[in-house]
Specification:
The protein is mostly helical and 128 residues long. It has 6 helices and 2 strands; from the N terminus they run H-H-H-H-H-H-E-E.
Length: 128
């Protein structure tokens, strides 16, 4: 019985070694096809690992401010300028001018109304 177990363990180890080399080949092929995106669990590049922790942190970021947000209601300001320049403009027209999706403006415009900057009449938007 011990001989059977030993030979079975050796067979399993040999098969695992084959599968590990196959996994490496498949990962390399996937990386070549998918581009430079890293997979989960893969170590960081040399530049990121070499940089000290203090330089990797975003020191300029204010506490509580989400990453990537420009702040200041930039789209609202741009939409307000368009409404002032072209009274009666619609949300789809504003979206086309700003090269953004209209659904975003359906969230921005009510904020401008509550600020008293614009008003809506029918489908058009006018300066207040």
């Amino acid at each position: 019985m011990a001989g059977f177990v030993d030979s079975t363990v050796k067979d399993i180890d040999a098969r695992l070694a084959e599968l590990q080399s196959e996994v490496k080949k498949l990962e390399a092929a996937r990386a070549a096809l998918a581009g430079t995106q890293r997979g989960p669990g893969r170590p960081r590049g040399r530049a990121a690992a070499a940089a000290p922790a203090a330089t990797r942190r975003r020191a300029a970021r204010k506490p509580g401010r989400p990453r990537g947000r420009r702040g200041g209601g930039t789209r609202g300001v741009q939409a307000l300028e368009l409404v002032k320049a072209r009274p009666g403009i619609t949300i789809p027209e504003i979206a086309t001018e700003l090269k953004i999706e209209p659904n975003y403006l359906y969230r921005v415009m009510p904020g401008l109304v509550s600020d008293g900057a614009i008003k809506k009449e029918g489908k058009g938007w006018f300066p207040a």
